[in-house]
Task: inverse folding
């Protein structure tokens, strides 16, 4: 495992997407612990896509237009729901001082769903992972599992960094209601934009 895998993986992980947006929003409105829960959920949400790529199930999404579009539009609907929820004062971006266990579980589940409901991830890993497994590799499955584990660890570390950064400026944000309103609209707009991008995506 060399730089040819680590560098593109890092670029992919740090690039703004639904997981990054959700983790930043969670850190800003609910603090450090909640942002770590969001990062964890986003990382766990990668597992089904990794499994699909390794098991060849992602090929079904790649070849079946019906399967791909069904999966895709469920993901679009969920992103639009997240956008609507972000705008509500008691929605996903509500300010909470002490995060209870139920809130942590709720954040984790939302984060998992954000990544699960994106068929492009399965197809991405179907195309990405095999590039780093040689035809002569004696244990290709083990190799793909180790690469997947590194990618997930990188995702978790980077997302935690995003979340903790957002949490570090949280007090300045919540002390200014106008900024908070602007942030809600910004994050809602980001979820809508990501939903539109997913809706327009081809296999």
Result:
């Amino acid at each position: 495992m060399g730089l040819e895998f680590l560098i593109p993986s890092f670029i992919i992980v740090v690039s703004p997407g639904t997981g990054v947006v959700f983790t930043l929003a969670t850190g800003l409105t609910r603090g450090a612990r909640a942002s770590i829960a969001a990062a964890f959920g986003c990382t766990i949400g990668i597992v089904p896509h990794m499994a699909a790529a390794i098991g060849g199930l992602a090929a079904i999404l790649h070849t079946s237009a019906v399967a791909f579009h069904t999966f895709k539009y469920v993901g679009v609907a969920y992103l639009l729901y997240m956008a609507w929820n972000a705008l509500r004062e008691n929605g996903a971006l509500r300010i909470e001082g002490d995060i209870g266990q139920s809130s942590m579980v709720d954040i984790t589940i939302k984060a998992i769903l954000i990544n699960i409901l994106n068929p492009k991830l399965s197809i991405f890993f179907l195309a990405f992972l095999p590039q780093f497994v040689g035809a002569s590799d004696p244990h290709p499955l083990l190799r793909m599992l180790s690469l997947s584990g590194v990618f997930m660890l990188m995702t978790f570390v980077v997302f935690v960094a995003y979340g903790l950064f957002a949490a570090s400026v949280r007090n300045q944000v919540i002390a200014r209601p106008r900024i908070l309103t602007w942030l809600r609209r910004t994050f809602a707009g980001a979820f809508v934009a990501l939903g539109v991008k997913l809706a327009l995506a081809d296999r």
